[in-house]
Write a structure and sequence with these properties.
Length: 998
């Protein structure tokens, strides 16, 4: 069960109704209540009496109570409630008496609400009265309560002593409590079995139903442990009695001297291990020192910190709990709904819970780190002693901590209590340089938005040690220089989550809370078994979600939304992640990061039937910090949290790579090692003859071992596969092959680089596979994204595309920032085009190998498409699972970049000659626009503005024609170039020049 289920299952607030005019007198009123019940009618009849003074107005909240009679000193006062309020201004000292009746019927709705004031119920299941079940003043009052109940009932209220007196068929309960209270409650049942124990002079009781009486002793033992713990940390338990009361209601509350827990909660191990201690701690905070709700609720954050958090801290997992609090805050809280701790009064939803419980706990953690552990607990003891049985505020906490620590804490409380939000930090410009015998680490820490002053913990790992630093922040940007004795490896800032800050993207796992915190997700409707999802669709639509068929959802909509994908056969899964990772269960939910939005998620939901969805879907809110959930018949069978970085981590210097030269292998050895793999990827720099020579050697070596070989080439595009096939079979010559594949138009590198490979493939009839997508599509996507493609163009692109590789995205972003042109501004479009390029090549490989299962393939592509496997290899593997090897020419000696690195000797090669002109092509005309230095064409007399007509008498209509013609010419060979020159007034003239090719 998720720790955050505590927010939903248990609301640990003593009942309190805020009224507009609390009496200012220091005299505490005495308030006596005598009540009786007609349980079949769900009715309470009561008499409330209070001592009053002449002229002191008292305002009672009466809610839905029926006021029967009001008297002052036994004289009737003609007064009626107005809008649920009864205003009385006595004309003399004496006693006010109010006779009243109320009906509190149970219902399905009332058993599910979490608001204290709505929980009053009287029915056959029992009695649970909180809030306005009597005329309520909301001021501090000393209560005297008598309750008359049918014999067989037991009852509990705020009391240090309970007397029971039998009177015929009725048992009268008298509750004695000398402390002042903000309100009083009552719970009773004829099913209670009472178990007793004792600890530290305190009487312990468990009021449990017969079916759960075996749990009573266990929970009392835990209660003893918690009371002893908090007496050691704080002060003696404030009362003489503590009771655990099982309730027929699902929620739980804590009141002075007792707590009640819903039956489901009683049975959960989570309750005894965590939430019972939380409620017991409320006996000190909230039920002994009361909360002044008009000045903010400090109790929930403090109790969460010293209960739920402390128990995790004791097992060494405090940092995990603090991170989970920050994850929940990120998921639920945004600038539009954010509140300050001063504004928090009670948990009404996930947002207020993330602030009051989560941020509150983190603020107390920072306060402890600021003043020190000893002073922290001394200040809490001071706070309790000064405010017991009184309403206290954040200001009282500040006063106690200032007194004990001697520190001026006004800035701390102003930042963290009065102001909204958490820190938003980033680290930039991290670098390392040698400084004498030391190493100097330099970096900047930036604060976005509001600027906080604090110390930020950092841990630097060196080659043989770690160094801890405190980074003092006091502005929106601060530069740091840290000296270390040894070469640094990594630096982690706030790896223990000691600071209340927004998590970075790398630290944030995709979790259910991110889905629940999004008020308007986008639903991708299922393609099959739609009936099984109707419960899910209805729930999301009720909260404001939009629904669409997957085919109608645009990338721009995905970028702006949390996306709920119904069914792992939904085409949107293939479109975003390539394919789904199915979980076998009746109902499953997988939360993944939205590839198009760093703060949104994509959620894949699978449901086998309506029944499975109805049984499981309402429970997902109890698993807010999990990424993967699976249920059968409503029972959880799997829960996992996605991976994420711990702290703000920076790699400063990697370990120096070293190679054992005695193990160096030759190219034939490497070919032997790669021969067993289905796919062999060879990464190249396109313009290096040495790389293409290695590629040919690999192809020849593999062909000698197994002639069932194909070659996949990035250099050719899919629409021209038939021409490739015809050339390999010998049906067309080389010139027709180059012309019909539009090689010189679509690939910018000299064909002499690839000719030996194609010649060998043709000679041995080795199939060559065109891997690439049409350039027109990738260029269009790089400018306007996949959304810009026409329906016909979309038919050419893969349906499976995985955009979720964040490491690859980061690599491409670095390349983009280094090389983007002035007009190229949208990285997302660039990223889409690159992934589309890779996915198309992976698809082409997969299609060929599926059609030819007895073949293996050598893939020739740029090194960026195969390094680390991110471009093509992992995408092809996702499709078919075939084992592969990556061979990289002149690759960096970096871990995991490839399986083999080859460092060939440089090699020159013969290239096609050039006429050394700059050209533009428009409407079938080729115009000279300029010349490089020492141009042979310029020396021959050709001028800028001339239009090329023919080469050696062969007509030219495209730049591609020029490249194809020149490929078959030799350097130094004369070339006759005919041009048309425009002349002022004299008209156009054809001229012919002889150019000696270079």
């Amino acid at each position: 069960m998720s720790r955050f289920s505590l927010y939903i299952l248990l609301i640990l607030l003593a009942p309190c109704v805020a009224l507009p005019n609390e009496p200012s007198s220091s005299v505490v009123p005495e308030y006596s209540l005598a009540v009786s019940f007609d349980i079949p009618a769900s009715q309470i009849t009561g008499l409330a009496t209070m001592t009053v003074r002449n002229g002191q107005e008292i305002l009672f909240a009466t809610g839905k109570l029926a006021i029967i009679k009001v008297t002052l000193n036994d004289r009737t006062i003609a007064i009626e409630p107005n809008n649920g309020m009864l205003r009385i201004k006595p004309t003399e000292n004496g006693t006010i008496a109010i006779r009243y009746e109320g009906v509190f019927k149970g219902s399905e709705h009332s058993s599910k609400v979490n608001n204290v004031a709505e929980q009053s119920i009287i029915d056959a299941r029992g009695i649970s009265l909180t809030g306005t079940w009597y005329p309520h003043t909301g001021s501090l009052t000393r209560f005297r309560l008598k309750a008359s109940l049918p014999n067989g009932y037991d009852a509990v209220s705020e009391a240090e002593r309970i007397d029971k007196t039998a009177k015929g068929s009725i048992t009268e309960f008298t509750f004695y409590f000398d402390r002042q209270l903000t309100g009083i409650s009552l719970t009773a049942s004829d099913r209670f079995e009472v178990t007793k124990d004792r600890v530290s002079g305190i009487d312990l009781y468990a009021y449990f139903f017969p079916e759960d009486r075996g749990l009573a002793k266990t929970l009392l033992q835990y209660a003893k442990k918690y009371i002893e713990l908090y007496e050691k940390l704080l002060v003696k338990y404030p009362y003489e009695r503590f009771s655990i009361v099982e309730s027929f209601l699902p929620s739980g509350y804590s009141f002075p001297t007792y707590t009640f827990l819903g039956q489901d909660a009683v049975r959960l191990p989570f309750t005894q291990e965590t939430s019972l201690g939380h409620e017991i701690l409320h006996q000190w905070f909230g039920n002994s020192v009361y909360v002044d709700l008009n000045k903010g609720n400090w109790s929930e954050g403090l109790t969460t910190y010293l209960a739920d958090h402390l128990y995790e801290e004791q097992t060494g997992k405090g940092w995990e709990y603090r991170k989970e609090l920050l994850i929940a805050y990120d998921a639920y809280v945004n600038p539009e709904n954010e509140i300050s701790l001063r504004e928090f009064t009670e948990k009404t939803d996930s947002v207020s819970g993330a602030v009051g419980y989560g941020k509150g706990a983190l603020v107390f953690h920072m306060l402890k780190n600021l003043v020190g552990e000893e002073q922290f607990y001394s200040a809490l003891r001071e706070f309790i002693s000064q405010n017991q049985s009184q309403k206290a505020s954040w200001d009282d906490i500040k006063a106690a901590f200032e007194k004990q620590s001697g520190k001026a804490l006004a800035p701390f409380f102003k930042h963290w209590v009065d102001e909204k939000g958490l820190l938003e930090l980033s680290v930039t410009k991290a670098s390392v340089k040698r400084n004498g015998d030391n190493f100097e680490i330099s970096f900047d820490v930036l604060q976005k938005g509001k600027v906080f002053s604090l110390e930020l913990p950092a841990v630097i790992s060196t080659r043989g040690d770690i160094k801890k630093e405190k980074l003092s922040l006091d502005g929106d940007k601060k530069s740091f220089n840290v000296l270390v004795d040894d070469e640094p490896r990594t630096m982690v800032i706030d790896g223990a989550y000691d600071v209340a800050r927004r998590l970075t993207e790398q630290e944030t796992p995709p979790v259910v809370a991110s889905l629940l915190g999004d008020k308007k997700p986008l639903i991708a409707l299922p393609v099959a078994n739609k009936e099984a999802y109707k419960t899910v669709i209805a729930a999301f639509k009720e909260s404001g979600a939009d629904e669409k068929e997957a085919a109608d959802i645009k990338d721009s909509e995905i970028k702006a939304s949390t996306v709920v994908i119904l069914g792992d056969d939904n085409p949107l899964v293939d479109r975003l992640f390539g394919k789904s990772e199915s979980v076998k269960a009746g109902f499953s939910l997988m939360v993944r990061k939205n590839p198009w939005s760093e703060r949104k998620v994509a959620v894949i939901i699978n449901s086998h039937s309506v029944a499975e969805a109805e049984a499981a879907f309402p429970k997902i809110s109890h698993y807010g910090n999990y990424s993967v959930l699976a249920f059968n018949a409503g029972g959880n069978i799997l829960k996992k949290i996605g991976d994420s970085q711990r702290g703000m981590e920076m790699e400063l210097r990697e370990q120096a790579a070293a190679v054992d030269l005695s193990t160096l292998r030759t190219l034939p050895d490497m070919i032997d090692g790669a021969a067993g793999k289905k796919i062999i990827y060879v990464g190249e720099y396109h313009d290096r003859f040495s790389h293409h020579t290695v590629e040919l050697d690999i192809i020849k070596g593999l062909y000698m071992k197994d002639q069932k070989l194909a070659v996949g080439m990035e250099m050719f595009q899919r629409p021209f596969q038939k021409t490739l096939d015809d050339y390999i079979k010998g049906a067309v010559d080389e010139r027709a092959f180059l012309k019909n594949t539009e090689y010189f138009k679509r690939w910018g590198f000299d064909y002499n680089l690839y000719k030996p490979i194609l010649d060998f493939a043709r000679a041995k009839k080795i199939p060559v596979v065109a891997l690439n997508l049409r350039r027109e599509i990738t260029e269009k996507v790089s400018k306007g994204g996949i959304d810009s493609l026409s329906d016909e163009e979309k038919k050419e692109i893969p349906q499976q595309m995985d955009f979720s590789d964040s490491d690859y995205r980061d690599q491409l972003k670095e390349v983009f920032e280094q090389h983007k042109s002035a007009g190229e501004r949208d990285f997302d479009f660039f990223y889409e085009s690159q992934v589309l390029w890779d996915e198309t090549m992976a698809m082409s490989i997969d299609e060929y190998l599926r059609k030819n299962p007895d073949h293996r393939m050598v893939v020739l592509a740029g090194g960026g498409h195969v390094s680390y496997g991110s471009g093509i290899p992992k995408r092809a593997f996702r499709r078919n699972g075939f084992a592969y090897t990556i061979i990289l020419n002149d690759g960096a000696l970096v871990k995991d970049i490839a399986h083999y690195l080859v460092f060939p000797q440089p090699l020159d090669g013969v290239t096609a000659p050039k006429i050394m002109v700059l050209l533009s092509e428009k409407d079938g005309k080729i115009t000279i626009t300029g010349f490089p230095q020492d141009s042979v064409s310029e020396k021959a007399g050709i001028e800028v503005g001339d239009t090329l007509v023919s080469l050696d008498g062969v007509s030219i209509s495209s730049i591609e024609d020029i490249k194809l013609f020149l490929f078959y010419k030799k350097k130094e060979e004369p070339l006759k170039v005919k041009v048309v020159r425009k002349r002022f007034l004299l008209g156009d003239k054809e001229l012919e020049f002889e150019v000696h090719l270079q």
